[in-house]
Amino acid sequence: MVFFIIWLLLIGYAVFLAPGGETDPILSNIFSGDLGAIDPLVLAVFNSLGLFPMMFLTLLLLNDRQKWPAWPFALLSFGIGAFGLLPYFAFGNRKADRRLRTPAWLVRFLSSRFWLIVFMLFWVGNALTLLQGFSLAAYQEAFFSSGLVSVMTIDWFVLWGLSVYTVYHFYPQAKRKSLAWIPILGPILVLYLNKKAATRKST
């Protein structure tokens, strides 16, 4: 019920409360390729909304034995973020007496040190964006003038909370699972440090 309420609130915010206008300044800069005009923090948050779905795809497919298949919602999150994941957590994330849906070859890949390290490098690459210098004041201005920045910021925090919940839900016995609180990178670090347990759980 909590996830369903969050989903409704997120939709309500995007439809009724997010700032809007005839033209979205940030969206216009993205479409025109003028990324230099976008504050690095705005750009890093925008890029991280591509990393969150990759992380959820990894976590959910390694544990896809719940009531509803997780992969459609994980794939949907690449396009609409938490809007696509919340219905799964609200209604489909229930224990079911069934085998893992994910093919064995994909389980081996997603739990491999190769994939986990590649993901970490993606995260580092995005974090390096911030070294260009960023302004919290510029982000605040973008938040109140751009519907894209406003919605993606709320979406980012919801995805962060979902990622922490996912680690604690699927790996309650994991070592150093408090690392999951590190946005995006944390859950992957938990998998990396508990690779044997994660692989065994996924078979």
UniProtKB/TrEMBL annotation:
The chain crosses the membrane at residues 41-61, 73-92, 112-131, 143-166, 178-194. It comes from the Bacteria. Keywords: Membrane, Transmembrane, Transmembrane helix. The keyword Transmembrane applies. This is DUF2834 domain-containing protein.
